[in-house]
Amino acid sequence: xxxxxxxxxxxxxxxxxxxxxxxxxxxxxxxxxxxxxxxxxxxxxxxxxxxxxxxxxxxxxxxxxxxxxxxxxxxxxxxxxxxxxxxxxxxxxxxxxxxxxxxxxxxxxxxxxxxxxxxxxxxxxxxxxxxxxxxxxxxxxxxxxxxxxxxxxxxxxxxxxxxxxxxxxxxxxxxxxxxxxxxxxxxxxxxxxxxxxxxxxxxxxxxxxxxxxxxxxxxxxxxxxxxxxxxxxxxxxxxxxxxxxxxxxxxxxxxxxxxxxxxxxxxxxxxxxxxxxxxxxxxxxxxxxxxxxxxxxxxxxxxxxxxxxxxxxxxxxxxxxxxxxxxxxxxxxxxxxxxxxxxxxxxxxxxxxxxxxxxxxxxxxxxxxxxxxxxxxxxxxxxxxxxxxxxxxxxxxxxxxxxxxxxxxxxxxxxxxxxxxxxxxxxxxxxxxxxxxxxxxxxxxxxxxxxxxxxxxxxxxxxxxxxxxxxxxxxxxxxxxx
Length: 482
Known about the structure:
Layout: E1 2-3, E2 18-20, E3 47-49, H1 58-66, E4 70-73, H2 79-90, E5 101-103, H3 108-114, E6 122-126, E7 132-137, H4 138-141, H5 150-153, E8 159-162, H6 167-174, E9 182-185, E10 191-195, H7 197-203, E11 219-222, H8 228-237, E12 242-246, H9 253-266, E13 274-279, H10 282-291, E14 295-298, H11 308-312, H12 318-331, E15 335-339, H13 345-353, E16 358-361, E17 376-377, E18 383-387, H14 393-399, H15 405-412, E19 421-424, H16 432-450, H17 455-461, E20 463-466, H18 469-474
Parallel strand pairs: 1-20, 3-4, 3-16, 4-11, 5-6, 8-9, 11-12, 12-13, 13-14, 14-15, 15-16
Antiparallel strand pairs: 2-20, 6-7, 9-10, 17-18, 18-19
Helix pairs in contact: 1-2, 2-8, 6-7, 8-9, 10-12, 13-16
């Protein structure tokens, strides 16, 4: 990466402050760009879902892994529960989505409660042996007594295919069909998954993030307090694919001690990369790498739910932080994840141009079907989910629920995060997969503009300029006209 101007900028920069210059390119199509990362995470797209309680759960993890990304399960979840979640994710089909299932005797009310859990809006009805007999959609439930049996309103004659059917064949079978989903069955005819027309299309464009056994990948986080070695050992034994050691201020002695403590359990799982953070300086990267980190998370204060900079004045503009930390990590043969500050696909491209191997995203993904929160509706009828920062009073209260009332009250006095924010579901793009499409499309196009067939070349060839706020505003579309 280099700046278009001969001299570098005189001050630190955010993503809004910079732009990419186009260069001569021999890359003929965005589909020719390889988005795989080289940081050991096994991701085939450079997207990591942040370990936020309102964002990262089992549904998010399986969906993102099918598209090549990695989800980090939060550190507040009990290790035993994490083990159950990881085991569940590892049993999911790498192509076909996990269906919503009811038996014929279930009530229509049960289907109505399940339908908002998926963007495709279909519940599969199965017999006693698990073989599909029909589907139920929102339209089928409209105007029907809620205590009626779903078997009486199910749409019969579903499109049933073997789960071994290739994605293009599934797409062609659905294209022009009235079926909302294709139902994948195993050799015994039992339901094994569902696939929409768009899902089949995506399956042909993305490569799932799979472990050595062909199972979906997932990461998990651990904090720096308590018995870190025991917690890390439990997560590693649960077969997490990436271990993230996470605290807001990563350049501290507790983090170094935590990384040293993890060396023991990690010896039995040498193929699992250790991620640590957060830092914003080259010195922070050096110290964490020397303590044992394979990847360092970069970012203090840029998150949408974070109030650290306004409360403390501490932090650093994210683009400059990523650029400096990535340069140091590369000198040490390691990698960085850019954590926070992403609002648009362009920001992901700029973080990768600055040298990040992956970009961590949190709140942006909270307003999707796949995040763990319940779907809520505001007074205007808009659908949303709640999000909150992991250093907020709400998160701290959940994290310290086992402590005494006095200790909990004392810690509640200090918060650096928003406890409740409404993240609206975009009716045109309500799924995390829709957001991944936009991000990957933007990054692929950025690579073609730079003449880069892969992310490493993109970083090498990227030429950036510094712009004024008016320059950033000029690049924004005017969707509602003049």
